[in-house]
Amino acid sequence: MKRLFLSDTGLTTDGAISLAEFLPETKSLLHLDLTSNPLIETAGILALSVGLKSNNLIRCLDLSIPPNSPDLAELSQSILQSCIRNTELAADIAKPGPSQDAVWQPIKKSVLVKDVKAADRARQDKAREEIANSSEGQAREFVYTLKPDRLAPQAEEIVGILERWFDAGKAYSSKEFNAWGPGQLPRVEYEAAYERAKVLRERIVDRIQEDVGPEEMELLLGINDTLATTLEKGGKFQPPPRLLLPSQINTSLPPTFISPPDEPHQLQNQQQQQQQQNRALPRSVRRHMRIPSLEISSPNFSIGDSDNDSDAEELDVGAFPSPNQPAVGLPGVGVDEDLLNVGGSAEIGTSPVERASRAWVEEEGEIFRKGTKLGVVDDDEEESGEQLKQEVSLYSILGQVN
């Protein structure tokens, strides 16, 4: 038996394995057709490939290989190579002429060869598409469409873009870096610019070898040297990220941050500077700045929790005195024990500092109301709350004496 056709017979993987065990023993079979048998899985095709390697007679073992299967495509290549090897041996023995053509006909018409060719074309098309969409492919498409007189300006422009990336890398690695400023990073990505510089240098080198004028030659030689230096510098350069993660942002405190209480001399200087700045504001604005504004951090949530940094205006809850400790006043503000429990009972859900602030605001408002009625408050001059309180008390005593 020289030809066995088992196409579309419902052959399974077990049947293919049984046939593969028979292949090394056959001494006459030349053509085995197993096409259109989708139940033959990878194990059966692998067994056929191994069995065919020990056979030097079969010139065509035809199979239907499913597309988009890398493993089966490799096995089909192995089966095809064994068939080509056996066909070449038979062609060497056959006489020149029609006999040799007849030897090659089965393998040329096989479904396996068509599937392998289609898979090769699909792989080549995919590879070309990937290259065309890559940075190198886009760079080549752009550069090789330029006219010769546009090579030098484009090279100068791309060198400038790469230098801006180098400067951005230095700024990013410095300790003073906080965030990217407007226009600090080029619009062109670093990889695309670097690949374009490489292709530009290739074209400039080809242009130098042509018959060009002395002026253009001098210009191209200078640009070629500049490109060579820039490419060497950028070979190991790691571009900084365009979008920064919270952990990459420098959230160090600004210079105007208020010093902690254990540095009284610095705290006093900063308070004096703040008071000088406040004097330049209108009186109506200064009135609302009498009481310090405090923001108490919640023990469960804080804006700074995402990067373990606290805001400049936040105060840690642990910094406030516990109920068993004596209350400590804020700098420049006296704390009366009676103010911490207004009305003799503590409000539910209100902190001691918040209750004290409310009491201060009420007392300050009452003083300004009395001062306005007594004519003590003057919009042209600034008086502290303590001075106004003393004047109101004096006017009240004089009124009682009169």
Number of strands: 5
User: Order of strands across the biggest sheet?
Assistant: 1-2-3
Number of helices in the DSSP assignment:
13
Mean pLDDT, nearest integer? 75
Low-confidence spans? 253-264, 287-349
Shape: elongated
Biggest pleated sheet? 3 strands, parallel
Instruction: Calculate Rg over CA atoms.
Output: 44 Å
Classify the helix fraction into a percent range. Answer: 40-55%
* Secondary-structure class: mainly alpha
Strand content: under 5%
One letter per element, helices H and strands E, the order comes to EHEHEHHHHHHHHHEEHH
* N-end to C-end Cα span: 141 Å
Q: How would you summarize what this structure contains?
A:
By secondary structure, the protein is mainly α. Helix content is 53%, strand content 3%.
Structural notes for this entry:
The protein is mainly alpha-helical. The protein is 53% helix and 3% strand. It contains 13 helices and 5 strands. It starts with a strand and ends with a helix.
